[in-house]
Amino acid sequence: MKYLIKTLITLCTIYFLLPITLNASTLNLSMTSSPSRLNPLLASDSASSEITDWIFNGLFKYDKDGKIALDLASKYTFESKTKLIIYLREDVLWHDGEKFTAKDVVFTYNSIINPKIFVTFGSNYEKVHSVKALDPYTIEIIYKEPYFKALEAWLVGILPYHIYKDEKDMMTSIYNKQPIGTNAYKLKSFQSGKDIKLVAFDDYFDGRAKIDEINYTFLPDPTTSFLMLKQKKLDVGKLTPLQIDRQINKKFKENYSIIEQPSLSYSYLGFNLNHKKFKNIKIRKALSLAINRQELVDILFLGHGKVNNGPFLKGSFVYPEDTKNIVQDVQKAKKLLQEAGYNKNNPFTFEVVTNTGNEIRINAAQILQYQLQKVGVIMKIRVMEWQAFLNTVVHPRNFEAVLLGWSLALMPDAYPLWHSNSRKTGSFNLTGYTNKEVDTLIEMGSTTIDKVKFSKIYKKIFKKITSDLPYLFLYTSNSITVVNKKIKNVEPAFLGIMHNQKNWIKP
Question: What residue spans define the domains of the chain?
């Protein structure tokens, strides 16, 4: 009898649990590259950043309109222009059940400024004098001087002190592959070069996510991703201009909503200004006038993009209103080359290096090569695997020119790319650009908290950089996202569609 009762209890348990398992909802996504480190301080590639965003929270975040909003912080106050007090939420748990406290914030800051830990955005904290815990849920931050990114600096994902405290080297920590965060999803499985699974965190402080799992299928070939979209095996994906214009049918549009908006990024041809070939600005001006940027946009994006004219987001409060598109002038380009000592018998020749896995960028290189031939310039192209490209070309500055792109921040910071102090190895002034006036303007901007004054300073920076031509600013593509129409509560906004993913419902 006891055995029978025990069996019945077991069967009942299975019966009640089975529908939950069968009805579990999964958001199917894909990625073309594998994350390197799932740590918000070390996530320097796009794949790592995307996954860590699901797992970690900052003290603040951007809302759907790109404005600063509370996240792990419950409120904040500036007691002076240089003293910021942040009050933390007291209901936050790490994925392993430990409580989140001020100790985690202080540890994260100390890790950022640790010279043994390579953090690409470390310049965001150079104005910080001290960070300390006043009590388990109150943080005091003292700045050396007024700082325009006093809040934005704390968008960074916070690390768990109790997990990393005994790690001798965070750069090689096992927890970079097995992260513990506080966000709506936690990692279920991850191996380099394989699929990644995330599951909803039941005790998330802002309420459990409506979709139970997120599955990232590893698809190095973007064509495979498109085929899976057409087979309805992915819920969200990106389309190329060619795909949206010529390769989808009525049935596809019935299954997916299409959301198109300018991407927060740009592509550029960057010159190594330490190389003798590019020290003469006449050469850089000639190359700029030789190319037809609109033709690049028309061929690469079939109209789904725009010419880019400088380092800051077009239409933003730091973008000069009188900026005009650079127009191709072949004759003037030839004249400048002649003045610099180049002609048919002595053509200007250089090599541009770019990476595999980005067909648009490779095609852009070929179009540039063709355009430059018209003024007698010979541009050679070398394409390399991404990690080899970074390690042997980009980081050691071992190039004549590179074809790359940058993402644009909502709150611009010119220091990492354009200040002369950022020329050192590991920093991002890849071209070796130096302009003392620009350095001074950047330093002025960093202590300017008045938005109108900041705008005027950054518009001057914009004009100085575009005049010096360390880059040929090329184009900004449109981001074309498709979403399964069956998913409810999708709200397209300035920041895209993922800002409220926690509230999505997939039948």
Answer: 57-162, 179-262+480-503, 265-479
